[in-house]
Amino acid sequence: MTIRGLALVPAAVIVMAPMGMAADKNGPAPEAQTQAALKRLASLYGPAWTLTYESVITTKEFGPASGAQTTQATVHGVLQKPNKFRLEVMQNNKLIGLLVSDGDTVSLYSPLQSVYRRQAAPKNLLLGGLVTADKTPLARLTSLVPAVAMTPALFSLATRPDFLGPNATDFAASALTLHGQSALDCSWTEEGATEHLIFNQSTGLPLRSIDSSTDKSGTTTQQQEDLTAIQVGTVPLPPSAFEWTPPAGAKPVEDKPAAAPSAPPAAASPPPSKTTPSLRHRRHRKTDTGDTDSGKTPSNKIIRPATSP
User: Fold this and answer.
1) Strand pairing of 115-120 and 251-252?
2) How would you label 14-24 residue by residue, b for 16+ Cβ within 10 Å and e otherwise?
3) Of 56, 66, 71, 147, which sits 20 to 30 A from 91 (CA to CA)?
4) So what's the pLDDT on residue 247?
5) Which fold has domain 30-246?
6) Using the 8-state DSSP alphabet, how is residue 13 labeled?
7) Bridge partners of 85?
8) Using alpha carbons only, how large is the chain's radius of gyration in Å?
9) Confidence of residue 131 (pLDDT cuts 50, 70, 90)
10) Residue 299 pLDDT exceeds 70
11) Buried b or exposed e, range 207-230, using 16+ CB within 10 angstroms
């Protein structure tokens, strides 16, 4: 994996002690196991300055009208606290989306449409915020390349102590084998959607993330992210890793200003006030927990950081 000359290569592996949390009827409650797994993951990523990873995202939609549709994309990502990142989304070995932040500006480029969008980078985006398709400040950006929307969840998972919302219920935990590795599948329900996080029981690192939801039309969206490589670094990367210049011919996309509302007739009653529903903390999607043949086997290693740039 290479992103702007940043190579993700095999190196010495830091092997963690076993979690000791195999799910059984005499073990800790599922919620306690989930909280412990998340806490351990945060402790692994907490000291990190950068996180470089590769993942395969498989999205399935099942609708009463559209039938079944499946798409798959590979994401090469490098994230640096507090608000720098570069995410390259590939499909059939072609770049279909680029989401990059230099700390001041966030840009999303769609090569297929030859258009891009830019906006100011929110402060501390990767320390407490999300880059998702259903929450500001990047909702309109990620709409150009939907596969980008989920990718920074890995970093947010590690840096947000409140990853589990206050309405999380129906916790479950079970032991399984995934890609030949002993794993712990933690799941819960929140705001009508189901989440799964599958951890390597030896290292504590995530192997798979699964989101599931069904909308009002009856369409079920299943999104599964399989992590194939992880590298944690403690040395900031050079600014060039997060630089991007629009290619020749690419056009900026600007939001059209909202039309001014027409004045109501003098005798008309004012329209009823409307409330805006709260946004979910993540975009929930659905998939089964069965192993999907993505052509890649996650290694999920913490690799010692490369030499200083």
Assistant:
1) parallel
2) eebeebebebe
3) 66
4) 95
5) outer membrane lipoprotein receptor (LolB), chain A (2.50.20)
6) B
7) 79, 101
8) 21
9) very low
10) no
11) bbbbbbbbeeeeebbbbbbbbbbb
